[in-house]
Amino acid sequence: MTAHATSMRVKLPVVCIILEGVTMVLFAIFVRYDKETDPKEWHMLLGKNGSHDDKNIDNDFYFRYPSFQDVHVMIFIGFGFLMTFLKRYGFGSVGFNFLIASFGIQWAALMQGFFHSLEEDNKIHVGIESMINAEFCTGSVLISFGGVLGKTSPVQLLVMTIFETTLFAINEYIVVSVLGAKDAGGSMTIHTFGAYFGLTVARVLYRPDLHKSRHREGSVYHSDIFAMIGTVYLWMFWPSFNSAVTIHGDDQHRTVMNTYYSLAACTLAAYAISALVNHEGKLDMVHIQNATLAGGVAVGTAAEMVMTPFGAMIVGFITGTISTLGFKYLSPILDSKLKIQDTCGIHNLHGMPGIIGAVVGSIIASFATRDVYGAGLKDVFPRVANEERTASTQGINQIISLGVTLGFALVGGVLVGFIMKIPIWGSPADTQCFTDEIYWEIPEGDDDGHGTMMSVKQDDPDKII
Amino acid sequence: MTAHATSMRVKLPVVCIILEGVTMVLFAIFVRYDKETDPKEWHMLLGKNGSHDDKNIDNDFYFRYPSFQDVHVMIFIGFGFLMTFLKRYGFGSVGFNFLIASFGIQWAALMQGFFHSLEEDNKIHVGIESMINAEFCTGSVLISFGGVLGKTSPVQLLVMTIFETTLFAINEYIVVSVLGAKDAGGSMTIHTFGAYFGLTVARVLYRPDLHKSRHREGSVYHSDIFAMIGTVYLWMFWPSFNSAVTIHGDDQHRTVMNTYYSLAACTLAAYAISALVNHEGKLDMVHIQNATLAGGVAVGTAAEMVMTPFGAMIVGFITGTISTLGFKYLSPILDSKLKIQDTCGIHNLHGMPGIIGAVVGSIIASFATRDVYGAGLKDVFPRVANEERTASTQGINQIISLGVTLGFALVGGVLVGFIMKIPIWGSPADTQCFTDEIYWEIPEGDDDGHGTMMSVKQDDPDKII
Amino acid sequence: MTAHATSMRVKLPVVCIILEGVTMVLFAIFVRYDKETDPKEWHMLLGKNGSHDDKNIDNDFYFRYPSFQDVHVMIFIGFGFLMTFLKRYGFGSVGFNFLIASFGIQWAALMQGFFHSLEEDNKIHVGIESMINAEFCTGSVLISFGGVLGKTSPVQLLVMTIFETTLFAINEYIVVSVLGAKDAGGSMTIHTFGAYFGLTVARVLYRPDLHKSRHREGSVYHSDIFAMIGTVYLWMFWPSFNSAVTIHGDDQHRTVMNTYYSLAACTLAAYAISALVNHEGKLDMVHIQNATLAGGVAVGTAAEMVMTPFGAMIVGFITGTISTLGFKYLSPILDSKLKIQDTCGIHNLHGMPGIIGAVVGSIIASFATRDVYGAGLKDVFPRVANEERTASTQGINQIISLGVTLGFALVGGVLVGFIMKIPIWGSPADTQCFTDEIYWEIPEGDDDGHGTMMSVKQDDPDKII
User: Fold this and answer.
1) What separation in angstroms does the CA of A247 have from each of A261, B373, B387, C256?
2) How is domain C11-433 classified at the CATH fold level?
3) Residue C162 has pLDDT above 90, yes or no
4) Could you tell me which residue ranges the Ammonium transporter AmtB-like domain spans (chains A, B, C) (predicted)?
């Protein structure tokens, strides 16, 4: 067997080494410890005599670190295992997720630094918040990955990562800093952006002959259970995700609670609708693995606001219903009519729920009053609190932010999709989609362990020849 | 194939939508943010001028949130995966666990609110502690689920959840608020209650012809490894479980440590006895998956007290021994003589260890003195510290609480068991137990991924026809 | 089938009960709650009147507990699942890991207590830090376990644990307390020690006829995915591991960040080199599961120091490269020439990266100046800050510590290897390596769940007869 166009032997090392090399050089030039991480600056802050007293330390790191780790688990375990549902793409799901997230968190720190936080010394000062924000940015790439899962090479995915994180950082800067929109859990900047970017890329990369690999697009019994590891971790830690960068105190507390109740209500909706739309009344693992999470997306903007637990549950229940119906009825139409082959159904889990989240956030923001928020208004809506704008102007800015985000996602997706389509990145043939065999060494023998290292597996007609 | 009595197509959506609808209406009427979650109240607490200073915020949320997430993982991953050991019930184990826990945490917040914390404004004010308490309550339902695993429909399980959480809240109110018993980790209120409730339900739902499904009651190699994910997560986070609602400071610290050492000693006992009772000296996965955890149950009442690490280890070691012996010798007797078909052996993991925990707690409480506890006595035994009762009276109240709990569990289990037995909930036939096929769409093909979407799986004689 | 020499029916219970019994007696005699865990002492510290005010409590426990749980997950899930890659040794991997870690954390608390922290009352006062340190010590045993995985009985592993934790405690005492070396994340004391101890034991236990079991030494598809659970958890929580016992504030913050960036860069190197050294350009799961973690090991000493994110990335990238090359080219040589049968490749993941970490730490320590560290110098290098020694002397002591550690590992490994070789511990025959069948009850039936409890599995030629 000779090396062929999809061989990663040269392409992957070259791309990895160039990307990591450029990243390291940029880190050397631009990235510095922030003042809480640098020993000299930190101890100067602590007092002239440098006396170190645990009681006086700023607790920001300690309050955010557990949330950071929860987000970290969502990005690497949550997304990685959610995508292992495919019967023969488990290595690629968790493995490419691992690769692109590892690169994404580095590149995002640079891009977000350039657009948000270059300080007077022209340096990017990294700390716990920049780590969390880089994970968020990477999350949007992993959402897009779900749309093209099984149909792209790792090099294509790295190419997507470098461009998507960059566009994410620009869009986030416009939405949050210029337009002053609130989007702590990223209904717009993470989910809507990641989903519509990924769907657009999937459209550009449309494969008319994908039917040659469709028999591998399903799950097997144990791969569905692996995927549930991803689902449940995403579900459990979503309150940490939405609250990871909100202000300490009531904001963070409220964001956790709203997200929690939205997800709980969403789960009941997903089970109800999944049974309802199946002609035998059987539950569909695709719905359970995905639509149960839509409630977390749909409060990504509003969870920080006073939406009340009841409001969160209503939003969660409606979104769980729409998401499940989307998997059942809309995805086949996107595939057959719009030529969008959305492997993981990101339109149903992130796309529509993200838009719902943006609209809900806009409406709730429009009705914010000092009567409800009291002195807390300045934490949630600083520009309303300091009378720079009215609540309804805030609401309008939220909706404009959604439009801007969709614009970046669609235009960016087209551009990056065409870059990914250049036939030099080792994209798999139409007969080689949804299989690990072309990019991974696959162990011999069956899952009962009876095979030997010497035996050759002959029974897979899709084995590369 | 036409819809038959076990079809969930109408029943599950109707029950889910009614339950969630009622829950949402009750939340709208009764549930409000607590003062740490409401922006206006919180900032009024912070000071008239509403100045926000991180240094001044109450740390309660930040100290409890990591423990809350650990408990959350135990409830959704721990219980869910522990039960995936069955060879063909992995979807039901993790999926129904997900469903009933999602509903349970909502309904429990209402029920616990009604019985414990209706405030002067007749509202339930929810915050981080109510979320933790709701997860605890849900834990007892999941314990009962283990007793009827594979033999109940999701609708039956939801029916069980709504009644069991309600009874839990009443019993908890009597034990904790009326009798003044200490039970931070829930040896009585969670484990004893959940186990004997579940065993009673299992007795009422006794199936004389269960042998028709017994060939599916075992595990396969990989399902046992999935189950170990559940075991190890439960084991690791049990110190967080027992300490999640104890008072900050030495109480919480001590509870963590006692639980930790009890579990470590328990694990060695489980391995020792598992090998000893096997005629080939082989370890049995059922014991390792379950009996290793009994040490956490057995210090659920006493871990907060001054039992010393040595005392915790003794309790753990003895309980690990009894639990393993229970799996080997007692469970078959319960099954054949008492007609209790306890799928997961909850009597061995939660029942007996829960009673041991209650007795140990009672004994240690009886000997509490100001000499040992110092000023900390008021945190652990407030009614003893303020001389409302003596230590031995506290001990007696602990034992009375065990009796009350057993009473609620047994009487409640009979009542709810008969409700669950009403033949309208879609319970599986005796030939259809321990299989996902009747409630779930099962992917085609074997676990090596060779099957195609077109093929029909013919080799399972238990497939519904 | 009669009991034979490998039967654990008597040996395992006897050893477990003796070890746990001795441990409990020593705990009863020597172990006491520390002052933050004992109610009387704690409340005396809080104030004469024992008034309990959350604002005043020492936050040490609360800041360390989330890190403790992350380390706990690494030890029990991380190591346990990382080793499940073997096709038929999943029970042993996660199960023996569970057993020896449960014993290790208890014995380590005693041994580290005897060597480090016997206080004036001749008692060992345990608290959150002693729990973390015991987990670290246990980590080194689990590294060694990786070297002998599949070729040892559980009794042999317990024997190894008792001696290795003891030697670890002595070496740690010399390195940290006598030589004053810094090694917060344990590049030397945990990784180098555990790896070379384990490799030496593996050498002593060399099996010339291991080829009789080699056909079982590989993975199957799903076992590789289980192993990725271990990998990703180790990877995600490594920042918590390296920072778990560093000083609060900038030290802990900086350690987290350096470890994070080192791992991210290491991951890209592992993917790049894995594809490069495969003649078809395919990624090898062995590399992805292991070499991606080498970056965490390699900054175990230096992450606390001011190595800058860029410095951490350089170290991570180089170590990821060396580790992957080690798996590809060095391990086969160790096996064939040096007769070291290193099942998990611990030399590549812990051995070489540990030495790199020690050297990097020594170099960075040598250049420590008050100009860079400011008043923080006393936290990182107290003996330099108080002018007891110069920075270059600190660097020399770091390198001496590496030498001492290697000495303890090699000499200790030889001694303990020969103890483990005594033919009374039930070691498996050469034909019985890498299989769970001799120590575990294996469920009947294949992984599709079609087998029945009555059927006898006839198709495994390795089944014990």
Assistant:
1) 20, 38, 43, 22
2) Ammonium transporter fold (1.10.3430)
3) yes
4) 51-424
